[in-house]
Amino acid sequence: MAKLTMVEAISLALRQEMEKDPRVLILGEDVGKNGGVFRATQGLFDLFGETRVVDTPLSESAIVGVAIGMAVYGLRPIAEIQFEGFIYASMEQLANHAGRIRTRSRGRYYCPLVVRLPYGGGIRAPEHHSDSNEAYFVHTPGIKVVVPSTPYEAKGLLIAAIRDPDPVIFMEPKKVYRSLREEVPEQEYLIPLGQSRIVMEGTDITLITWGAMLQPTLQAATLLEKKGIKAEIIDLRTLSPLDTQTVIESVEKTHKAVVVHEAPASCGVGAEVIARINEKALVHLEAPVARVTGFDTVMPLPKLEKYYLPNAERVTEAVDRILNF
Amino acid sequence: MPKKTVQSFSVEWLQILDENGNCDEALRPPLSNDEIKKLYEWMLLARIFDEKAFKLQREGRLGTYASILGQEAAQVGSALALRPDDWMFPAFREPGASIVRGLPMCMVLQYWAGDERGSLIPEELNDFPITIPVGTQIPIAVGAAWAAKLKGDKIAVMAYMGDGATSKGDFHEGLNFAGVFAVPVVFVCQNNQWAISVPLKRQTAAKTLAQKAIAYGFSGIQVDGNDPFAVYKATHEALDQARDGQGPTLIECVTYRLGDHTTADDASRYRSRDEVEQWRKKDPIERLKKYMEKEGLWNKSYDQGVCSEAKEKVEQAVHEQENFPPPDPRDIFRFTFHELTAELKEQSENFFNANGKRNIRD
Predict the structure, then answer these.
(1) pTM of the predicted model, to two decimals?
(2) Does residue B93 contact residue B190 with C-beta atoms inside 8 Å?
């Protein structure tokens, strides 16, 4: 089995879905001849031509708006927004149309759209290229939000997202794009949306995370293990809809939890996870659930980003605090 | 090296039927007498519907409503040019166009009465629900048109908007895409001079809205939007071109919003009565009536017949709307995704019992 990076796994998923379903097409800036700024669409232009891998004007609102129109008409568009910092212009289309059209038309129209969105810090990118803005979309009804954490995950989740009849924001952690390789089967497989996975079983504390933060969380678990602490790690995979059940079952077992995410703390998805734990498993908790997150600040430029981004050390510190509560 | 002109342009104005009912027969679209009568009857129905909707709001029987008074020609003339399998994207002031397309009037009322089922467009109709956020329907219409082109469907898409929409980013982005990819879409801009209280001169310093098309690489035409013949002719030709693969057109229908922005607005706060009176003289229905009378197509008894039939249809629509069974409150949840997520199911079941009634907790 080939060991692929996440970018290669995404590219493979795109190619296979386009081969399988003629309704699938890609549109975005530089996705054609250039193969995308991260090369996720590399080679697809030559394989499928300019009507299925479409270089668009530099126009984020219309990339998403036009894709909504295509989806409503019966195609399966995949829109690429180059960096998460540029999606704000598309927000009106996402919130006012993509997420609402099924409800507003009482099911007559729906929007099987995927917006691929590279997100997050850690690659020393310029300003506006390193945010982690998933909470905006999670707070938007009618939109699903998926964040893969590894190459294998990315392929299976992307195929499920493309086939999903609802709009999906597919947030790709830039930090993981090329930083690790993993065996990714050539044959088709789907990872259902809305189901989290237990990455590592443990009994002492539950660490809940997603996307790029899985790696520092895994490193933290290794450090904790040396101290005899067995952490259970949950990769949420899908932030909307959120798989509450897996989190609750784990917390009932470990009685302690830490949520790790890259985005600012306030009203981040971690806050929602904690609220659900409080609603459903408060009596099982032995300590308040902790958060290890970015700060409620603007994401700093590369010289300071290492201070902003959670790392294994910050996770283990939080775990220590909870264990000594 | 001398300076030289690399591009110059002009914008055409089309009027066929003037406000006194004088018609340029050479330009008149080839409509039969029956079709001319239909044009008149639809405009009259749109006006009677509109008057009724306004009254219903004042009586507390309808929510906020956006009147089309004065814009009947722009709506009926353009919508009649569409074919049944074409797609239509309204903004929020197009009930005249929607009823011509075949949307039951009771559904228009149902929407403005606050019931989403008014946006459940009948299967046989390729129309999008009303779009309230100004101009945001434009990229979506372009996407639908592009999809039709990619699938080889020989249809056209019509997208309505007002003058205010031309100031929005989505107008620019949508029209730019339409030009670049030469998609089969016709943009009908009802320039009714006012975006709530802001006049056209605050939307643009350009002489016409039609000329904006030129910057996107396709043609724009300004028509007398109160002239049903001109609107019909311009939209009909543009739709034919679109279906024929010749790309988009922007049609600026110069008209006037005789009423308030909506029932929640009072236009006397920001515009003069005199201005409104000047536009009343350009009434689209009156001018067609004058023309038809000259042509022997209109007399009082015909008019009375048309009016009473229209009133009857409108009353019937009101009756139907007011007698719809109330919506199931669980519909709040039902259409968020193709199936209820665990969280939505829980929220719904915590709130409503199996009969859709509110749960009473102790």
Answers:
(1) 0.97
(2) yes
